Amino acid sequence: MVFPFLTIVDTNFDVYSEVSLTALILPVLASTGSDFSVYSTAVTLLSVPALVSTGGALAVYNNDALKEFSPPALAFTAVYLDIDSNDALTLILLPALTSVGSGFWVYNNAVLTYLSVPILAHIGGDAYICANSPTFPDPSPIVQKTNLHLAGSCTLSTHNTTCPSGPTTCP
Predict the structure, then answer these.
(1) Main-chain phi, psi angles of 91, to 5 degrees
(2) Could you give the CA distance from residue 169 to residue 16 in angstroms, rounded to a whole number?
């Protein structure tokens, strides 16, 4: 499904339980007034190259066929970023992301081997990066950056089959 002219959504943009949807392409969507959520779909392609911000959360979860998620312009989410339980997801690239209003959660992505957030400077809540692929690298460098302000607790693990129940000591 392609939305070639959709540039702004004033409230939520939610795609839920669309089991026949294999591609979602929003080439010029720049912002949402609230949440941007794609969950429980069959998408293999989720393309939002112009998305700069969400006025709420950004949530991508339970999409069993999605292999990569890389919104190149995304700089800010007002609430949380939640990327979880995507069984085929191997790669997350967030090259422009600087700030997340509350939680930064990347977990239960069974084959995730790469996560990049090179200029992330602010997480207004908890960082939760755990229970991803057995070959997922140590996520500590993501929260060890000297310029990162982390307001909440931190839970990290490299290859746990489950996330720890409470915050662990993070650097």
Answers:
(1) -140, 130
(2) 35
CB 163 within 8 A of CB 136: no
DSSP 56-114: S-EEEE--TT--EE--TT--EESS-EEEE--TT--EEE-TT--EESS-EEEE--TT--E
Q: Report the Cα 8 to chain-centroid distance in Å.
A: 20
Let me know if 118 is exposed, middle or buried by CB neighbors in 10 A (0-12, 13-18, 19+): exposed
Cβ atoms of 4 and 28 closer than 8 Å? yes
- 47 close to 21: Cβ distance less than 8 angstroms: no
Cβ atoms of 20 and 40 closer than 8 Å: no
- Beta-carbon contacts of residue 103 (< 8 Å; ≥ 6 apart): 80, 81, 82, 123, 125, 126, 127, 128, 152
pTM score, whole prediction: 0.91
Q: 33-84 pLDDT, tens per residue?
A: 999 999 999 999 999 999 999 999 999 999 999 999 999 999 999 999 999 9
Domain ranges in the chain are: 8-156
For the segment 123-171, what is each residue's pLDDT rounded down to a tens digit?
988 888 888 888 888 787 777 765 677 777 777 766 555 666 554 545 5
